[in-house]
Please model this.
Amino acid sequence: MNEPLKIAVAGLGTVGAGILKLLAEHGDMLEGRCGRRIEVTAVSAREQGKDRGVSLEGLEFFQDAAKMARDADADVIVELIGGADGIAKETVEAAITASRHVVTANKALIAHHGTELALKAEAAGVSLAYEAAVAGGIPIIKALREGLAANGIKSIHGILNGTCNYILSRMRDEGLEFVEVLEDAQRLGYAETDPEFDIEGVDAAHKLAILASLAFGRKLNFDGVHIEGITRISQMDIRFAEELGFRVKLLGIASQNDHGIEQRVHPCLVPADAPIASVEGVFNAVVAEGDFVDTLMMEGRGAGEGPTASAVCADLADIARGIQIPAFGIPAKKLEASATVSMDAHKGAYYIRLMVIDRPGIFADVATTLRDNEVSMESILQHGRGAPGEAVPVVVTLHETEEVRASAVIETISHLDGVLEAPVMIRIENL
Ligand code: HSE
Model:
């Protein structure tokens, strides 16, 4: 009889309780698959007595997660505390120092400190596993690291934040404005404790930085991610996008070229018939382009008790089976830094929405600005007339150009007489 794999769980929120439930329900099945039982021996949380719908009987309880990482009778520490620094980082470092494997769902921690933690884990001969940190239940880490190990990855893109996708989907389906749906997302518990991380694109950027490191075999470079959120997207943009044959999605996109790696998170117009356009609600999706496999897409729930517990337990199953693969596919000491391709060098098509006072000559001024910057316009849309002195929306779409030119156009247009408010720019992605 093989010894059980003993685990200690730091953080007993929704995901922590989910792991305990999953292991209680599928303990025998996992034992059959892994050849060893996975047994929870200890837990840590702020409050011991709280009702979580799972029994903590027989488990050693710690209030201090880092102490648990040092002292518990455990082979693996599962970190579910969250946050890039503080007690989460302390717990993970204490676990590695004590030669215990680490499984974490903490995207901020991995995005900021993943390379350094992987170096420490590899030096200590333990695993640093983080399947649950990106796209919840979608096994994208394993897919990139193992299933696609034989491919050069050209690019990766995805819907990496369920809260934003939920908000954009409901804005489209129900004609609601951003703030109305955000309140629902918070009430339903989709948004992070600090919703700024979701709606400003930071959560998706954490996940994208992790995927880019893994896909391209480079050191984590969170600071190299260009980040824009969805707070300026209005009902008008959703409707104009539909009219033009697009949907608005917050995407994370990473690609590699001769100059380095481009990592960007921002709202995009995607063709309405692109597979990713029909990924709706809280669902996530990741599309990878490999040189031999071609294009593949995985879709699933990016958060929640069941999907996240599923991902954490898949990492535990690997450890129970004795599978130990470098956290980022190649040994951490061989990961090289990558140059960041700046957004000025990005080439793409653009949607620009202006709010203008309806007066003769405004289109001519816009056209002159485009000519002066050598940018070609694809279309211009205005519906109806504004009442005297009132602003009306005008949408201009640009053919592919360098971002530095598109930015110059927007800057000039924003100062034209009759243009009110800062223009809304959304990049058009040809997926
Ligand atoms: N708040 C995240 C989201 C879930 O909305 O996708 C966990 O990463």
